[in-house]
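Thread title: Can someone regenerate the structure for this chain?

I was given the following input by a collaborator and told the matching structure tokens would be attached. They weren't. Posting the sequence so someone can regenerate them.
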Amino acid sequence: MTVMPRQTILFDLDDTLVHCNKYFDIVIQQFLDSMMTWFAPWKLPAEDIRAVQVRIDIAGVQDNGFHSEHFPRSFIQTYEHFCTLTGRTPSADESELLWKLGMSVYEFEIEPYPGMIDTLDRLRDDGHELFLYTGGEPVIQERKIEQMKLSDYFGERIFIRRHKTADALSSIVREQGFPTESTWMIGNSLRTDVIPALLSGLNAIYLKQANEWAFNIVDIDAEPNGAFETIEQLTDVPRVIHNWILTLR
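Best answer:
Regenerated them for you:
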């Protein structure tokens, strides 16, 4: 049997290995339903409410990183925006309800993406070293890791960062001494996974999702030094890496 050269593989967590956006979509719909009820006399279009919430949400992430409170805060600030716009008197009870609703997104039982176990098993069995690089608050991300038993694959090779930027990724690569030509970043975010990987000189696999968070969608302004592939199924990762290694022989 031919032994494949060992690769260093960093996986994103949310919407790469486990579902995330689907839970936010559920809670956002509940938020829109509440807003449409409260502001029914003004006949606000749901898309207008959503547009304001998205703008506030993205601005919060850009300013404060992946902090749990920015999401419920975006609900309250959107609510306050439309209270000011319409002249409706804000209610402390309604604001509290929105805060609890926003925070409830972190209470869902986590589900793996199809083929997560098979993909990680295959890569580990091929002799590659697996790392997890995720954005968010440690207590929330660690709960997901524990629920999915991901320590079985990543051990202590887990990095949780509030800001997933090119500087954050390049610092990890430098501190860990990863060889850039055989290191891969795999994730669903062009902004926080793919572009930082390309700027750091790594190989990148973009796991394109059908329903992506607006924050993650940006133009790619970096040229790959190695492999850069787009896939739509997590289970394609081993094939992409295997085929790239073969091209180097």
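DSSP finds ten helices and six strands in the chain.
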